[in-house]
Design a protein that fits this description.
Largest sheet: 5 strands, parallel
Order of helices and strands: HHEHEHHHEHEHHEH
Number of strands: 5
Number of domains: 1
Organism: Gossypium hirsutum
Number of helices: 10
InterPro entries: Adenylat/UMP-CMP_kin, Adenylat_kinase_CS, P-loop_NTPase, UMP_CMP_kinase
CATH superfamily: P-loop containing nucleotide triphosphate hydrolases
Cofactor: Mg(2+)
GO molecular function: ATP binding; CMP kinase activity; dCMP kinase activity; UMP kinase activity
Family: Belongs to the adenylate kinase family. UMP-CMP kinase subfamily.
Structural class: alpha/beta
CATH class: Alpha Beta
Distance between the termini: 42 Å
CATH topology: Rossmann fold
């Protein structure tokens, strides 16, 4: 299902460290000279956020890997799905709309999700963010980058890394049905809708970041530790480069 995406993805090769250093230098240069925003607008962080998007279909295992990344490399984990479910539990007007949208297997409007993510970023003392399950669509992507650019008083702010967890459809279905976490969208009918939506709307986002040289495809089959051994070198390289630049 996802084979054509893997052909486009960035590989971890002998030139990986040099590529990472170049990206990190660009990121570090963005952290200087940030102008103060107009009165009444939340000021940007002292450092430009280092952002990783984590993409993959439902049951691809990206949530589990996010926990390991956070524990190992000190990121703040923002799960778009968890934020939306928390909004549902709050009984707000947006929460009712979100619940109905999820039950139909559809994508929640970009402005709603971006607003929740941005609020968490503003409240965090961390500058490294692991954003799980977002952007789901090209509209999500554009909305997020525009809003973040306004917040940081910069033009064209994009994620530093995009991880795509590539997993066979039958494995994803099995994992979702077996996790028993009480989620409103963890049933066979809804997961089939979600997989159809993911393939139609998320693959263009994945291909976009592949063409930008930001995408890393992770083969999401095996034990948690085996999968993480594909992830570790990506962030370890950034850690090495950060120490060198510092």
């Amino acid at each position: 299902m996802w084979r054509r995406v893997a052909l486009l993805s960035s590989s971890i090769s002998s030139s990986f460290l040099a590529q990472t250093a170049s990206r990190l230098n660009t990121w570090e240069s963005l952290t200087t000279g940030i102008a103060q925003q107009a009165k009444g607008v939340i000021a940007p962080k002292e450092k430009t956020p280092f952002i990783t998007f984590v993409l993959g279909g439902p049951g691809s295992g990206k949530g589990t890997q996010c926990i390991k990344i956070v524990e190992t490399f000190g990121f703040a984990h923002l799960s778009a799905g968890d934020l939306l479910r928390r909004e549902i539990a709050s009984k707000s007007a947006d929460g009712a709309m979100i619940l109905n949208t999820i039950k139909e297997g559809k994508i929640v409007p970009s402005q709603v999700t971006v607003k929740l993510i941005q609020k968490e970023m503003e409240l965090s003392d961390n500058h490294k963010f692991l954003i799980d399950g977002f952007p789901r669509t090209e509209e999500n992507r554009v909305s997020f980058e525009q809003i973040l650019s306004e917040w940081q008083s910069q033009i064209g702010v994009e994620p530093n890394v995009v991880l795509f967890f590539d997993c066979p459809e039958e494995e994803m279905v099995k994992r979702v049905l077996n996790r028993n976490e009480g989620r409103v969208d963890d049933n066979l009918e809804t997961i089939k809708k979600r997989l159809t939506v993911f393939q139609a709307l998320s693959l263009p986002v994945i291909n976009y970041y592949s063409e930008k040289g930001k995408l890393y495809t992770i083969k999401a089959i095996g034990t948690e530790d085996e999968i993480f051994e594909q992830v570790r070198p990506i962030f370890a390289a950034f850690e090495v480069c950060s120490q060198t630049v510092g």
